[in-house]
Amino acid sequence: MKKIIALGLLILAFAATSYAQDVKLDFRASGFIDAITEYWRTAASNSGGGIYDVVPPAFKPYGQVGSTTTGYAFDKKNAYMETRMRLKFDAVMGKELSGTIFFEADASRWGDLSPSGAQRNYMGYWSADRAALEIKNVYFDASLPYMGIPVPIQLRVGLQPFSVRPNLLIYTDGMGVQPSIKIDPATITLYWYKAVEGADYKSDDADVYGAQVSAKIDTYTVGGYWILYNMNSYPFNQVPGAPDPNTAPFQDTKYSANIWWAGVYLDGKAGPVNVNFDFIYDYGKVEGRPTYLIAPDVKYRGWVGYLKVDYPYDMFNFGGVVTYATGADKRDTSASGLPGTLTASGVPSDKVTSFIQPPGSEAGAIFGESLVFYSSWVNRGNTGIANTNNYNQVSRGAVGGTWMAKAYASYKATPWYKITLAGLYIGDTTKHGDTFGTAMNATRTGYKNNSTIGWEFDLYNEFQIYKNLKWTAAGGLMFAKDGFKFYDPVFDRNRKPSNPWIITTNLTYNF
Question: Which CATH number belongs to the domain containing residue 504 in this structure?
């Protein structure tokens, strides 16, 4: 409550120095509508999950815990279509003030069957008339009067995007306040978001705090940031013992957590070469709340490094990406990474050294560095074996427990057609086990520890039909290696799926 009062007084102080405007309202609309086709084998839709329970049910052989016997299953082909619509309205009052309302609607499948009368994400239901329209953002931006401070101050308030290096760390939407100050050549941005309110009379909230500093230096943009998730209730929105946290009212959870992320980055041009670099470190712990649970804390320590280099030459572009993200030790880490849970060897979990991303972040879908193993920009990140997003607790995202080396080349053959070829080597950084595979040793007393997940090769074709209409057709094939084997308890043997592949297309109208 004190934080809310202090924030309100701060805004009122700014408002007290406001000045009159004589500016007409400029009302703008923008958005897109797409149609995506998916055809794949073992290149699963988002896997979800926690730290190491990330193997999609489709990959688990029949009889294994969590396997599926209906729908898409081990080694089966999958085909469907999907659509998303976004509609954004901006009410602009000159340079000083604007408001944004942003809507979204999804047909997760053309021909959706709506279970139990569900409406959200079921725009594809036959005969239509679904209540599928969602509010994505509602916020306003204000350029505040100087109030004696000779630097520009911007303020964004409301349901807004929270984005910090979104391909690796954070992209989500939430209620918050984001002020920024421009002091040439630097920009300082502060963050406060309310992730969970809980009961008004209890200290069971989850708050997000942070700061970022960036500056344009010569041909580079350099920056650094620190983000803290102070989670008095963790996981978010979960009732102890409830199978689905979204179907019950919020109550105190068994756990609390404090985890922070610190990172540095560089984007820019070194002569003819474009460079993007990131390094991120996570640090914190999850502990049992004494009222509910007495168990050892679980400590979190992980990091990721990312380097991308592009060399454009005439109608060509040549590039490469290298990523390394730490993995956990399966002797110390349970599937969920929560206190009081047991590792595969039956001892209490107490450590997670895998790189993780915050709760609710969609970085796993945004990473977009391949078609089969990682998520793809072609289909909005809706597939990918390694695409792990968890909306209630931390997860390994796209990269935790893996490393990758990628080379690619593109050629813009005409003003309306571009072709790109890419090849990736994908490795495993988890200790005493695999990030995705569950292969057991010969004596069935522990997991195998394999270092190679596979090789992947991708082809992209981009057609600019009109200025606002684009069609992309892409296909990828992964040659799976030992890090992608699974233990089949029914036949007591390790099994490797047939090589995963995907063919996906996207027709998008932007307006």
Answer: 2.40.160.100
Strand partners, 406: 321, 424
Task: Identify which of 176, 186, 229 has the alpha carbon closest to the alpha carbon of residue 360.
Answer: 229
The H or E element containing residue 4 is: helix 2-15
Residue range of the domain that includes 59: 2-510
Count of residues making up the chain: 511
* CA 71, 72, 77, 78 torsion-angle sign: positive
Residue 453 backbone phi and psi in degrees, to 5: -90, -45
Question: What are the structure tokens assigned to 300, written together?
Answer: 């979190």
DSSP string, 320-388: EEEEEE---BTTT--SS--TT-B-TTSSB--EE-S--B-TT--HHHH----SSSS--TTTTT-B-TT--
- Residue 255 structure tokens: 């756990």
**Which pair of tokens denotes residue 192?**
């406060």
Measure the CA–CA gap between 372 and 459, rounded to whole angstroms. 11
Query: Both tokens of residue 183?
Result: 């002091």
Per-position pLDDT tens, the chain of length 511: 445 444 443 444 444 444 455 678 999 999 999 999 999 988 776 555 556 654 555 555 544 444 444 334 567 788 999 999 999 999 999 989 999 999 999 999 999 887 777 888 889 999 888 889 999 999 999 998 766 666 788 999 999 999 999 999 999 999 999 999 998 899 999 999 999 987 777 778 899 999 999 999 999 999 999 999 999 989 886 554 544 444 445 556 788 999 999 999 999 999 999 999 999 999 999 998 887 778 889 999 999 999 999 999 999 999 999 999 999 998 899 888 899 888 878 888 999 999 999 999 999 999 999 999 999 999 999 999 888 888 889 999 999 999 999 999 999 999 999 999 999 999 999 999 898 888 888 888 888 899 999 999 999 999 999 999 999 999 999 999 999 888 877 778 888 888 999 999 999 999 9
Name the nearest CA neighbour of 458 among 361, 355, 323, 321. Answer: 321
Which tokens go with 365?
Answer: 């879908």
Separation between Cα atoms, residue 498 and residue 75, nearest integer Å: 6
Count the domains in the chain: 1
What does the alpha-carbon distance between residue 116 and residue 230 come to, in Å, rounded to a whole number? 36
- H or E stretch covering 86: strand 77-93
Q: Which two tokens stand for residue 399?
A: 């990269």
CA gyration radius, the chain:
24
Nearby residues of 409 by Cβ (< 8 Å), 6 or more positions away: 316, 317, 318, 319, 420, 421
Residues 6+ apart with CB under 8 A from 426: 373, 402, 403, 404, 452, 453, 454, 455, 456, 478
